[in-house]
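Practice set, problem 2.
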Amino acid sequence: MSLRLSLVFAVFVMRAGACLAAEEIEWLHRAARGGVTLTANPLTAAQRTAFYLARGFAEPAIRPYAQACGFSFAMRNSGAGPVRTALADWQAVGADGRRAGLRPPAAWDAEWVRANVTEPARVAFRWAQFQAENTFEAGDWIMGMATLDTQLSGSFRLIARYHDEKGTHEIVLDNLACGRD
């Protein structure tokens, strides 16, 4: 089997496994507005390190990502029309008022290029991330990982904005905290 065909097969298996796993996950944080539901679970550094070591990353290369405050997110559109979301519109707000955005996957990918991470590992990374921009038709959903661009201490709230034909809306997840090993 060629490397390219192996990569395509691996990506297909990863996505198929993620679809099955999404239905079985017990989400710690859940909020809904209109027909849109957002769920989140904190991920520890050990979880993310193990996940990406198995996908071809060297431990030193993945360490900055693993040490960032990261989550697994799922978003579902159960409404009647399309919904658009962009990580650039999401914001975490700490109890002390400090704010943090979500770091786009492309910013991490630029680090992987500088660290000489292989293309297959970088592709696996991109497939596992919550995409920077999404459009969801009725019934669509996405699941993936994302990190804050700044570490927040203690608990915080996440304000996730999305857009539909009626305008801009917010879903708020309260009492989030970074995963601890």
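Problem 2, part (b): a different protein.
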Amino acid sequence: MKERWSRHENSDQYQAFLSYVKMPKPRSVTQLSRDLGYSTTSMWRWSKTYNWDERAAAHDKHMMQIELRESTLTQRQKHRQQIEEYRDAAQKQARDMMEVSQDLTNILSQRIKLADASDEEIPMALVAGLLRATANISEQGRQAWASAIGVEQLMEVVEVELQNADRERDQESLEGAESDDGYFEFELDD
């Protein structure tokens, strides 16, 4: 079983370690000793005695995991937003097409009534063409609406994924700072 690393340093040494972890890469014990005003020899001894390189690497790994999880969450949220926009556009298109279909039906009905009242003959080819156009537009509207409903179901699936990701992230934070390789991991306050 691997050793669990924890804080073994005294307060000054631990503060030096935290400064080391926050340094830009590549980290330098020599530069850190200059920055903090400690002797280079003491800093090297602390670094080796308390495994600063390994612990800093564990921290870096932990931070990369957090960034990866959060970028994945951001991508999921962006995907959800795009699905919502598509759904809204499909619903608007469906409503518009159904309105056009209803308007055409009303116009045709009024024209037939007007022609009937004046004993005017309307060519059946014209009536049939308008009815076909109305039916086609109406069918396209229903298909657009069905597509919007399907997108709504897809959004529910994406929402469940986002909730699961939130629960996983919360669970991981509750399980403590131990990584799956047994090393102690920690977070630094900036």
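Answer key, part (b): Residues 62 and 185 are 7 Å apart (CA to CA). The chain has five helices and no strands.
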